[in-house]
Amino acid sequence: MLWLRCAVIALLLLAFLGPSLPLQTVRTVVLLDQSPSAREGVARVVGTLPQLPIGARSRLRPEGNRHVRYLAFAERVQEVASATARREDLGEGTDINAALLEAQRLEPDRIVLLSDGLSQGEVLPVPTPIYAFWIAPSPRISLSLLPPTYPVHGETVEVRVLLESTADTTAHLLIEGPAGRQERQVQVKAGRQSFGYRFALERPATVRARVESSLGQDSAQVQVSPADKLRVWVLGDEALARYLEVQGFAVERRSRVELPIQADVVALGVSARDLSEAEIDALQDFLNQGGSLLWTATPRGLFFGGWERSSLSEAIPLEPLEHDGGVGLVLVLDVSGSMLQDDKLELAVTGALELIRSAREQDYVGVVAFSSNYRWVFRPRRMTPQGRKAAESLLLAARAGGGTLIGGAYTEAVRALEPLPVEDKRILVMTDGQVADPIQPVLNAAAQGQQRKIFTSSVALGADADQGFLRELAQQGGGSFWYVPSPGDLPRFFLEEAQRQFRREALEGSFALVTRPHPLTRDLQPPPLSVVLPAKARPWASGLLYAQEGAVLAVGESGRGRVAALATDLSRSWKDWRGASGFLGSLLRWLSQTPARPRVQATRGEEGVRVLLEGQFERPALRYAGKTQDFLPIGPLRYEARLPYGARGEAAVLEAGVPRLSLTLPALPEWRLEDGRAKLRALAEASGGRLLSDLAELSALPQRKALELRSLLVALALVLFVLERYLEWRRVGVAGS
Questions:
Q1: Contacts 24+ apart (CB under 8 A), 48-51
Q2: Under CATH, which architecture does the 327-501 domain have?
Q3: What are the structural domain ranges in the chain?
């Protein structure tokens, strides 16, 4: 068995030496940079690319048998048939990292990269050796426009025109924008040069530039908008929307409050009843998070829309201006059997609740129901908080059934109003059917009531209502007749009636305005208003405009946001005042300036990337590329940080207790003055390859991949060792027997 032991030792010694057999062809992926800056250079050198081996086709994997694959790339990556293929449809930038990831997916043994190294994205090494060949970028003059950061409406701003050239040249530069057309011949040195284009920023503007020289041509344009250009949602106030559009605001007309609220200010010219409870809660959350609200007195807005009875009432800086005299009102409500159809009674009760909720403490409200007989739901009582609560409970318990006899209920209403200590006394009759009792006594009672200053109005619900009688009743009673075609219209009708009955109507005429000191009213001389909704400023708010004894405009803060209320209808007031748009724009800008809504902006300049931050921060910091850099204060609630010119990708603004703000750094231009050769060298060496000085060096690289024999030899040695031990055991066993 000595020969087996010698064989084991020989195999182990051979395995120690690490022999191999060159059996497999090396798989190679060639990456061809087809970006605008490298396309021509790659086309010139691919003819010198050495012939790389192509393996034989495999029956098992005919689609994956090639040992050389070619990928063309720019912003995107596409496989091509050969190195000489040209692709001009892969984008105008360069993303080497995406190309390397796509190459890695093909599982190569090595990657050959032909590029100028000017990649916009971050380039990360891959585990496969990279053999890079640097292509000099094509001669080029490139142009980019650098906008001002956070420009203010009305200030003179400057757009920097940045030229980057790979060689000295003479160029023709054309700039167009709000300051007119400017042309010049410039001597451009290799490197960077910049020029300024200044203009007054009155509205969003576009600046365009174009450069032409022997090195090529380039063009760019940039939008410059005031930093105070706000996103404003306008609900129900078309006049306000038009005024704000003239000021350059990003105005969105909406009928609903959609989540999430993607606006800086929400202007409300709609009724509170137009919105659901969820929408009103969303507006409250919007305020708490630093948003701003503006109420306007359209025919459906502010107090016309019942906002003082909504959950947002405490956030409105105006409240109705109450008169000393109260109102006595009795609702004579039909609860006959026909009111059970189409939810008429339920909708009527919902509407009647609006009467109760709209009443003031000095007002008296009562409800008497009639069907085959009459009964008091509740007699007239003052609408104190306790009285209002009790009235609501009694009204919700109303039930329907029986005929339509109105006379007794109407007589009771007149009797109940006579002793009330108010001068203004009114009756509102509502029915959906034909009156069954004699109508003349009711008409006579209405005429007599008018003589005693008790006025009667009537409501015909649906086509089956006795409109002739109800119209005559309103005429005899000195009131108004209303026709409500559908039960679904009842809640809105009662809301509007509540505004009429309890003096929520606007005053029309000519109302001179008086201003109170505030940054918004400095040098302001507004003309008289045509319509005013009587209101007063809440104790916590600041009244800015007053007409007679009432406040027209009040502002304040609620939650972490700001609020304002305007007690005039802009569709009828200030139509001929040229300063209306500017004043309303200033009001919206003031509303938006809340420290709870920080903003961050990054611009790329000649020396680097400038990051500006606005908002209420203690010690803000910027995290970029694994490092943290502090912001430096440059003004009230304004901070600045600067990054290197080549900085790109994502960055985050950090501060304890405040959610992170993320921003994307501006993209680099395709042509720029960077050392692409050094970048390729670092990439190649980090991956285990190297930077080639000549493509011919590829011929010296191994073309076949060796099959390592060490493991095989060790395994064979182990098998022989076991065999030798087995034979030895057999020999000893036979000898013993």
A1: 48/695, 48/696, 49/83, 49/695, 49/698, 50/695, 50/696, 50/698, 50/699
A2: 3-Layer(aba) Sandwich (3.40)
A3: 2-19+709-736, 20-137+673-708, 141-224, 231-321+528-592, 327-501, 599-664
Distances in Å between the Cα of 403 and the Cα atoms of 337, 369, 413 are 7, 12, 19
Mean pLDDT, the chain cut into blocks of 10 residues (737 residues total): 72 68 74 91 86 45 61 92 88 88 90 89 83 89 82 79 87 93 89 87 89 90 76 94 87 90 92 87 90 91 78 90 78 89 86 81 90 91 88 87 90 92 89 88 91 90 89 91 87 74 70 88 88 89 88 90 93 89 88 75 75 80 83 78 75 68 75 82 92 86 64 75 74 66
Quick one: three-class SS letters along 272-316? HHHCCHHHHHHHHHHHHCCCEEEEECCCCCHHHHCHHHCCCHHHC
Q: Which CATH fold topology does 20-137+673-708 show?
A: Rossmann fold (3.40.50)
The whole-angstrom separation of Cα 91 and Cα 95 is 10
The token pair at 421 is: 């200590």
Q: How far apart are CA 583 and CA 567, in angstroms?
A: 15
How many whole angstroms from its chain centre is CA 300?
27
- CB under 8 Å, gap of 24 or more: what pairs does 486-490 form? 486/462, 487/342, 487/343, 487/344, 487/347, 487/348, 487/461, 487/462, 488/347, 490/344, 490/347, 490/348, 490/350, 490/351, 490/461
Q: What was the pLDDT predicted at 64?
A: 43
Give me the residue label for tokens 């850099």.
629
Q: How many helices (H) and strands (E) does the chain have?
A: 14, 41
Calculate the alpha carbon distances from 261 to 80, 225, 253, 285 in Å.
48, 22, 13, 10
Distance from chain centroid for Cα 57: 55
Distances in Å between the alpha carbon of 418 and those of 229, 424, 475, 485, 515?
Answer: 59, 11, 20, 32, 44
Fold match, 231-321+528-592 / 599-664 = no
The whole-angstrom separation of Cα 719 and Cα 86 is: 56
Q: CA–CA separation, 272 vs 305, rounded Å?
A: 5
Reading the block at residue 716, the tokens are: 């064979």
The rounded distance, in Å, linking the Cα atoms of 430 and 659 is 56
**H/E segment holding residue 43:** helix 39-45
Q: Is the dihedral of CA 176, 180, 183, 188 positive or negative?
A: negative
Classify residue 520 by its DSSP letter: G
Estimate the share of the chain in helix, then strand, then coil, as percent rounded to the nearest 5.
Answer: 30, 35, 35
Residue type, 432: D
Q: Scanning the structure block, which residue is given the tokens 């709870």? A: 596
Q: Which residues pair with 369 in a beta bridge?
A: 333, 375
Q: Are 121 and 667 in contact (CB under 8 A)?
A: no
Indicate the residue type of 182.
Answer: Q
Q: Which CATH architecture has domain 231-321+528-592?
A: 3-Layer(aba) Sandwich (3.40)
Residues 6+ apart with CB under 8 A from 17: none
Question: Whose structure tokens read 């010698």?
Answer: 6
The CA distance from 440 to 458, in Å, is: 16
**φ, ψ for residue 667 (rounded to 5)?**
-70, 150
Closest CA to 654 of 644, 645, 664, 663: 663
* DSSP bridge partners of 292: 265, 562
- Name the CATH superfamily housing domain 141-224: Immunoglobulins (2.60.40.10)
Fold (CATH) for 599-664: Immunoglobulin-like (2.60.40)
- Provide the pLDDT for residue 634: 78
